[in-house]
Amino acid sequence: MSFFWYDWAGYLGVALVLLAFFLLQERKLQGSGLVYQLMNVLGAIGVMLSLGFGNFNLAAFIMQVAWLLIGSYGIVRGVQRRRKARELP
In terms of Cα–Cα distance, which of 38, 49, 44, 57 is closest to 5? Predict the structure, then answer.
């Protein structure tokens, strides 16, 4: 069995998403924090690369697109909140 770069991207993506969730449960990360959101977004991208270049699975791909969009939304909302907090006296 040989592994290609996209297989490794998928494994790394899964590891990032699972590690992010574990660290959230351990209260080492905040759900609205940038590190948590980036781990989820990068993890979703890794899995999407694996699905796009390897064995495609539509259901898994749709889930990763949703994960990517939600994580991106979280990043944008976090940036907006931090800007508002800086503007307050």
Answer: 49
Q: How many other CB atoms sit within 10 Å of the CB of residue 59?
A: 7
- Signed CA dihedral, 37, 43, 44, 49: sign only: positive
Positions in the chain short of pLDDT 50: none
Count of beta carbons in the 10 Å neighbourhood of residue 24: 16
Cα angle 25, 19, 63; round to 5: 95
Q: Are 65 and 40 in contact (CB under 8 A)?
A: no
**What is the pTM (predicted TM-score) of this model?**
0.91
DSSP 3: -
Please, are residues 44 and 68 in contact by the beta-carbon 8 Å criterion?
yes
Helix (H, G, I), strand (E, B) or coil at 37: helix
Residue 30, SS3 per DSSP: coil
What value, to the nearest 5°, has the Cα angle with vertex 32 and ends 26 and 38?
Answer: 85
